[in-house]
Amino acid sequence: MSGTTTGTVEQAAPTGVEPPARGQGSRTAAVLALARFEARELLLQIPVFVFFALYVGYTGWTMFNGREGMDDYPVLQDVDRSTQTGPLLLGIALFVCVDRAVLRSRRQGTDRHFDVLVMEPWRRTVAHALSVVPFAAGTALVVVFQFTWAALKPGAVGHGSPAELAVGPLAILLSGTLGVLLARLIRSTFGAPLFVVVAYVVTVLVTNAAGSAQWARRLSPAVSEEGADPIPSELLGRPAAWHVLYLVGLMVLLLCLAVLVGGGRTRAVKALTAVALAATVTGVAGQSPGDSAGLIAARAKASVTPEKVQSCVGHGRSTYCAYPEWTGRTADWAEVVARVQSLAGGSARGERLTVRQRVDARYGLESDAALEPSSTPGVVTVGTRWGGNRIQEFAVGVASVLVAGDEESSGEGCDARAVTIMWLALASEPDPMTVFRHIRLNDSVKGSGISLAPTNPVYLSAEQTRIVRELLHKPRYSVIPKVRAHWAELTSAKTSTARVAQLLGVPTAGAGAGDAKSCEQ
């Protein structure tokens, strides 16, 4: 052999502290790249695009076009709950479309090509789950903007809950993760639509079987509980933090199950699955108990004896008592009282009223219980809703106490006092006829009807409605002297409808016995 030598290549033994191989970082980057690609594909799906646009558009429309002015005075502990139901339809669309995205390779017959790729099936599963994150982030932005918009309004009261605000975005993540898991379990494109139908039927059956049990109702991603008037935040009794723990635990549990089915049976995944299962069970247990005895007692105290939990302030001659979160609204109530009282006559012009805020929270957040009228002289009830028609309804309540003496007496009969009450409540409005129409149940200024108030409504016969309508068409300054001159007779239960028309200078049209008969009916 020639004089050449053969060199040997020596390789150091691994020490166990070497830096990670490049392959790990490239795989993570590949997962994120696939997640971005799938997110763009999801946005191009017609159901996802349409429902996301509808969700954003409808939320924006409700923020800029409130419910007859009531959204100008939002209660923040109701606003945070109202953000939860909007994303649900988007969640259903994402559930179906994510399921189809995972099954795309099976539909197109390209599953076998994945065997030559570096990315394992469980990593693709994680990428599909991550593709929903941008939609959850978009939902979170909408929720934050919606709540902030309400909180910055001058008439906002109350306190919001971060846990309540987190429900909408978490519902989106949960929907996408469930779609990934279902695609790994049922390799059929009909699985997702069928699952939606079956889930709806099962939900209805479980709800009917469980009745009003809180544990069953709170298994739903969003539990808004609406219907009752707003109540103080300390009386809500909603286990919002436990519900968030339940949603987070369930979402992680579903993702871990999808990864396990996809082949990612590592020790870390199994440990995370156990932790997620424990968190889900803990969340369910924490949110399942009903209202505590202390909460029930606090609700009854605030409903039956509100004076024990309220603070009172004075404006002018009158006193205004409100729950702690509503004390900033007393100036708005005082403005209405001053406006109505300025039109009254006799001692009513200088009467010292007590305006007391009331709400019936004894029956929970979904019971719209009516408030019983107060029999205490000079006490006027105001509710926890304000804005829109609630302002004029409060004016009717103020006028009722000024005329009848107390709320309970204002509901007795429909004599001349009903005409006086309605004129006092509406005469100082810029457009009294429109307001008159809005506070009537039949939305009409003709015929008999009921005008709403915080407690006792005011019934007007057809003839009384006509008289009020004629009075509101007259210049206010021409009616005020007549009201003040004949105040004692106008506020007497013995004065007939025909007589009130004569006193106020309105031509009669059959008022008398026939009208009295219809009034009794």
Model description:
- With about 525 residues, the chain is mostly helical.
- Helices cover about 55% and strands about 5% of the residues.
- It is built from 22 helices and six strands.
- It has helices at about 20-45, 45-65, 75-80, 90-100, 105-110, 120-130, 135-150, 160-185, 190-210, 215, 240-260, 265-285, 295-305, 330-340, 390-405, 415-425, 430-440, 460-475, 475-485, 485-490, 495-505, 515-520; strands spanning about 310-315, 320, 355, 380, 450, 460.
- Strands 1-2-3-4 form a four-stranded mixed sheet. The chain has a two-stranded antiparallel sheet with strand order 5-6.
- β5 and β6 (about 460) form a beta hairpin.
- α4 crosses α9.
- It is elongated.
- It starts with about 20 loop residues before the first helix and ends with a helix.
- About 40% of the residues are buried.
- Residues about 1-10 and about 15-20 have low confidence and may be disordered.
- Total strands: 6
Which stretches are poorly predicted, pLDDT < 50 over at least 5 residues? 1-12, 14-22
Radius of gyration: 33 Å
Gap from first CA to last CA? 129 Å
User: Count of DSSP helices?
Assistant: 22
**Biggest sheet: strands, sense, closure?**
4 strands, mixed
Class by helix and strand content?
A: mainly alpha
Helix content: 55-70%
The fraction of residues in strands falls at under 5%
Q: Give the ordered list of helices and strands.
A: HHHHHHHHHHHHHEEHEEHHHEEHHHHH
**Major beta sheet, strand line-up:** 1-2-3-4
What is the general shape? Answer: elongated
Mean pLDDT: 86
